[in-house]
Design brief:
Pfam families: MFS_1. It comes from Mucilaginibacter limnophilus. The chain crosses the membrane at residues 21-44, 50-71, 83-101, 107-130, 142-167, 182-201, 222-247, 259-276, 288-307, 313-337, 358-378, 384-406. The protein has one domain (14-201, 220-416): MFS general substrate transporter like domains (Growth Hormone, Chain: A). The chain is mostly helical. The chain is built from 17 helices and no strands. The termini are far apart.
Length: 432
């Protein structure tokens, strides 16, 4: 109890905007696993077409950079907390709209994916900026460690509870034995969580970015490296979200299995990540990143060689650890590079947030199209078995790019000069 009190006091010692952002993300963390896991399961249940899950991911990925650009202009008129809240609420409403479709086809899945991409665009564009201006380099490991801890704990509880709820509806005859009704109840829960998170974020008193140009075509060479890292991350991003549900539904069984397997390894992952975030130094980020990449490759390799229920379980288990490790290392690197290059080029920080999302989208487009083409013209089994390992090996190249970024002389010098307080925002300036 004494140690828990120390951890609570340490949390309270952090700046108020950082604490409010963490609390907002903690609540929304309990909605995201339901959205990510069970929308894919619902698509498979309604359409019996695994490739439609990747169509959904591609449409979602297309909506994100579009919204990033819209967000850049809307920030000139609306508070950032309001746009952040809008993204969370749209995600819940979009899930509800999907449940109204009796039959899912290519057009319907694409439309729902595009709307979900709009919601994620508002969410991620503003989340990155809020994290950038609510933290500093020496507390970002703690921030992302605690945030990832929240999301990991949510990934333990929500898939298990939701999966059991859906499975019990069928096996025990709840609501007439209709699984669709169970999805409707989960949708209502997601909407309530998004509304609660939206209320909390308005208590953070966040400042908008400066009103300045954010569209550029040429950048400093350090940012070019960061864009390469973003593209490599994008290649695997769609697979990381969609692959577990596709493999489990195809090789293991039902939604209950998705929840149970996803939750099994998450408890250890949550504890490990909090300790890493609390104790790890900025110098450890490349090692943490490499560990996440290695786990992804190992899980994909086991799935390729076995391609059965056990192989799917091992892959999902590896991914439970790999995904948060990658995020824990990646996001502090991204924010540090944004601060470094924005200071050097005298540009609006949101310009780099938008540019980064374009890099992510280029990689995501390649990854999703690869899966869809293999699934359509060869077979779904080949896509889940061989395309997955190909993507894992491509993303493994990220370790060399990440090391080049960290070892960049200008990046190292800027990190040493990082101020002890968050960078103050300047007064808004007019467009040139």
């Amino acid at each position: 109890m004494g140690k828990l009190k120390d951890e609570y006091n340490f949390f309270c010692s952090q700046p108020r905007p950082m604490r409010m952002l963490l609390l907002t993300n903690m609540v929304y963390a309990f909605a995201l696993p339901v959205i990510e896991l069970f929308i894919g399961a619902y698509i498979i249940r309604k359409s019996n077409d695994v490739s439609l899950v990747m169509v959904y991911q591609l449409a979602q990925g297309t909506g994100i950079p579009i919204t990033f650009m819209m967000n850049g202009y809307l920030l000139r008129r609306f508070p950032i907390s309001r746009l952040y809240a809008l993204g969370m609420i749209i995600s819940g409403i979009d899930m509800g709209v999907m449940m109204l479709f009796n039959n899912l086809n290519l057009f319907g899945v694409g439309l729902i994916g595009l709307i979900m991409g709009l919601s994620y665009g508002f969410f991620w564009a503003n989340r990155v900026f809020l994290a950038l201006n609510s933290t500093r380099d020496d507390n970002r490991n703690y921030y992302y460690g605690l945030e990832t801890f929240f999301f990991t704990v949510a990934s333990i509880i929500m898939p298990l509870v939701a999966g059991y709820f859906i499975a019990s509806t069928q096996k025990l005859g709840w609501f007439g034995g209709h699984a669709t009704t169970a999805y409707h109840f989960l949708t209502v829960l997601v909407i309530l969580l998004t509304i609660t998170a939206s209320v909390i974020v308005h208590k953070g008193r966040f400042q908008n970015p400066v009103n300045a140009k954010f569209l550029y075509w040429k950048f400093h060479h350090l940012w070019d490296k960061m864009l390469a890292l973003a593209a490599l991350k994008g290649v695997a991003q769609g697979f990381i979200i969609a692959a577990p549900v596709m493999l489990i539904m195809k090789l293991v069984g039902e939604e209950g299995s998705v929840g149970s397997i996803q939750s099994t390894g998450s408890l250890l992952s949550a504890v490990m990540l909090y300790i890493l975030g609390r104790k790890a130094n900025p110098s450890h980020r490349v090692k943490i990143f490499a560990a996440g990449l290695l786990l992804f490759v190992v899980g994909a390799a086991v799935n390729m060689f076995r391609f059965d229920a056990l192989g799917a379980i091992i892959f999902v288990g590896c991914l439970v650890f790999a995904r948060p490790l990658l995020d824990l290392a990646y996001f502090p690197i991204q924010l540090g590079v944004i601060e470094c290059v924005a200071s050097k080029e005298k540009r609006n920080q949101f310009a780099y947030i938008f540019s980064h999302e374009v890099g992510i989208y280029v990689g995501r487009l390649f990854g999703c199209l690869l899966f869809i083409m293999v699934a359509r013209y060869i077979s779904e089994d080949a896509a889940l078995r061989y395309a997955l390992i190909a993507v894992a090996l491509v993303q493994a190249l990220s370790i060399f790019v990440a090391r080049a970024i960290i070892n960049d002389n200008e990046w190292c010098e800027m990190s040493k000069k990082q101020p002890l307080a968050p960078t103050a925002l300047k007064e808004p300036v007019e467009l040139s």
